[in-house]
Amino acid sequence: MSVVLEVKDIHKSYWRKTALSDVSFTIERGKVIGLLGSNGSGKTTLMKLIAGLTHPTSGSIKVGGATVGHDTKRIVSYMPDIPLTEGWMKVKDAVSFYRDFYADFDHAKAHEMISFMRLNEQDRVSSLSKGMQERLQLTLALSRNASLYLLDEPIGGVDPVARGKILDALVEYYNPESSIILTTHLLTDIERIFDEVIMLKQGKLILQEDVETIRMKRGKSVDELFKEVYAEC
Amino acid sequence: MIEFDNNLPIYMQIMSYLKKQIIVGKLKPSDKIPSVRELASELQINPNTVQRTFSELEREGIVETRRGLGRYVTSEESIIMGIKKEMAGELIEHFIQGMQELGFASNEIISIVSDAVESKGEERGDNP
């Protein structure tokens, strides 16, 4: 299987504060990866580094064999934890905005996902509930035909029913040729869509493992393992 | 729908779910089984996990892939009987172990089982 992402000896400091240190891992094509960690463990920093929105202090990150930069942004679709859409936009404006920005934006897919998510094209983005907002952001991010999707907390603030809908959309619209990295701290429902999990703790990578192997070898769920690992945090 | 136990490998749970469907006849010999995608979205799980389930079922000869057409339950009754025996074996092993832990001897277990089967039969009114 080919490697989509290669992170090598990454170190990132903000001024004197170290956000990430000695982080190395690779991700293969077609995998769904759960990036886990308690608050402040470095998840969002790592996502931003892969998206090319901030630069590592040292180390290298390659997407599809190329060092992160202008070219890799074309094949990486990043859903930030803070929406990129503006308050004046209607849902359809947000879609046009993304279409104008990204050459790989699939308008037909966006259309389909909007109705799947029960979003209304005429609704103002600012009037959407938190759950609907998350559905919109996920729709925008997944409507690109990217090689790598970075989804930062796609199920952060939604109720269990809405979470189910978002999970449905992920399984339904995920392209098996691409990979997804998804950060979350709500594991119970979502751990079944992962192939592997990566755990970060205080800026260090402490585990990368196949989830079925975790269940088989340790006889416990990813959620339980997570609670164990972060118990003292 | 399956109630998953996240402490156990998911692909094994889907395997036994599909095997049960075959044994009880919800999936019949030569029936087409859902695609990876369909089953993944129905169960809200990773498509790769479903893929793994199917590969294992193929390896055991329970499922056959017909090129370009999809996957089908085997038409060989002997394999289906095999699954039935295998699952029955697991149940019995579990049961016997439980009974032994309660301190029952082999002949006691047998008489308890035959009594229970008899009274169940009367309840349902069937004549095995």
Offer a quick outline of the entry.
Chain A is of the alpha/beta class and 233 residues long.
Structure description:
The complex is a heterodimer of chains A (about 230) and B (about 130). Helix content of chain A is about 30%, strand content about 25%. With about 230 residues, chain A is an alpha/beta fold. Chain A has a single domain (about 5-230), classed as 3-Layer(aba) Sandwich (Rossmann fold), CATH 3.40.50.300. Chain A has a six-stranded mixed sheet, with helices on both faces. In chain A, strands 2-1-4-5 form a four-stranded antiparallel sheet, with helices on one face. In chain A, helix 4 (about 130-140) packs parallel to helix 5. The longest helix of chain A is centred in the C-terminal third of the chain and has 14 residues, at about 160-175. Chain A is globular. Chain B is mainly α. Chain B has two domains: about 10-75, Winged helix-like DNA-binding domain superfamily/Winged helix DNA-binding domain (Arc Repressor Mutant, subunit A, Orthogonal Bundle); about 80-125. In chain B, about 60% of the residues lie in helices and about 5% in strands. Chain B is built from five helices and two strands, in the order H-H-H-E-E-H-H. Chain B has helices spanning about 10-25, 35-45, 45-60, 75-100, 105-125, and strands at about 65, 70-75. Chain B is elongated, with a radius of gyration of 18 Å. Chain B starts with 9 loop residues before the first helix and ends with a helix. The mean pLDDT of chain B is about 90. Classes of the chains: A alpha/beta (about 230), B mainly alpha (about 130). The interface of A and B includes residues 32, 164, 167, 172 and 188 of A.
